[in-house]
Amino acid sequence: MSEKPVVLEVKLTQLSHGGGCGCKIAPALLQQILGDVKDKLPYPDLLVGTETCDDAAVYRLNDSQAVIATTDFFMPIVDDPFDFGRIAATNALSDVYAMGGTPIMALAIVGMPINKLPIEAIRAILQGGESVCRAAGIPLAGGHSIDSPEPIYGLVALGIVHPDRLKKNSGARTGDVLILGKGLGVGIMAAALKKGALSSDGYAQLIANTTQLNKVGTALSEMPEVHALTDVTGFGLLGHLLEMCRGSGLAGEVEFDRVPILPAALPLAKAGYGPGAIERNMDSYGRDVHFSEHIESWQQRLLADAQTSGGLLVSVAPGAVEQVLACFSQAGFDQAAVIGVMNTGAAGVVVK
């Protein structure tokens, strides 16, 4: 089934206390919860575990194959059930692409308030997820469901990558150029939607952005000049760049005026819209993020905005910047842009 099914009018966002990747536990609190669990695990074939806060776990099967495993799920970011399913599935598969891999299979994670949602709406959520898996060329091969007080949907995503072409978030090098693949502002637009302040054009931008698969990550894995890769989701651009900086032992520098922003998000950001996750993210960054004096409060908040199914963040050698930008352009990412550089220094981010 390729067309959007007709479903009953259901305000999904009114059934949950949060939505999208804004539901994530704040990075500082998550670090406290994990504690020593983040230490390197004693399995030589476990190429990526929890030690660098990377996008997925990676286990080497043999000299030419490694399996990528990840899971991602959340509560509704939009009211339309089909769109919610599409966004959640696209977001989950992004972690495989962010490791430079190719998805091979997915399993559904489903938690629904059976006494509050019509069967038609639940079915539409699942159909939305299935449509994205078809677009990615993989089977949605099963899953697990529970009766939950709030609607939850997502995927377990499995992928494959050659061990030599694996892209971690910790491989950035001094002098690398930072490229962001999608515009920011998803969390801000979703907050406006919940308050009835998002235009129809803004909603179209929101859906187009959050349902665009980051397939370009697979192509980027072929480039040795791409040293580090991650995707920008619930911790905001600053949070995920900070993870890259900490993993690589470098300092990131961002030029705000070069950061792509979704057109409909800009006036909403200036008007103060945004999810509560922005403040949680800002508090978590602490002294590791520094803003130049001319960076206004709304600009700081936009950089900390919780993205759902956000763009890939690439750390690439200067000589391959045009090749990476061309790769994004050919894949249909028309807002991909250079946003900064990686410098020698204490792990942290400076915004100019």
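The above is record 1. Record 2 follows with the same two-line structure.
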Amino acid sequence: MQIGEKIKRLRIEKQLTQEELANRCELSKGFISQLERDLTSPSIATLTDILDALGTNLNEFFREDPEEKVVFTKDDMFEKSDEKLKYTLMWLVSNAQKNSMEPIMLILEPHGRYVEEEPHEGEEFGYVLSGSITLHLGKKKYKVKKGESFYFKPNFNHYISNNGTSLAKIIWISSPPSF
């Protein structure tokens, strides 16, 4: 861990100049400058004073937060199929249920359909990667072709069907998660 770099980041977050931080800790601006460039190391007492001035403490400062997963590979994805309804559902982000949105890929075989969902809070977005689908929203139907997208508030029962003769692939995002 680069102590100086982390102190500088905290100082900037608190909108303090090096001189203001130095004055609050009864240190010189030069010492703060050297510390931020990792040219010197503070004693524990001095570091504690600096961290107090920055609104944190030793435990918080040295706590290593696990790095947030950003890239998800095929190994992270989970797949479920329904032979009767002729669909395959792939969760693209592992543990997405804890996030504010949940992206999936839905693959519908010819004459396949996804489960009908009841009205719920949130928003739904989809993009058709291949084939074409019919989006059923209550009593209304919308044809959505390859390269087109859909967006709606799920205030009605809704589902997607593939009335065509070729495979349909859709990226579908629900916020909050509902799949």
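The beta strands are 78-82, 87-91, 102-108, 123-130, 132-137, 140-145, 149-152, 158-161, 168-175.
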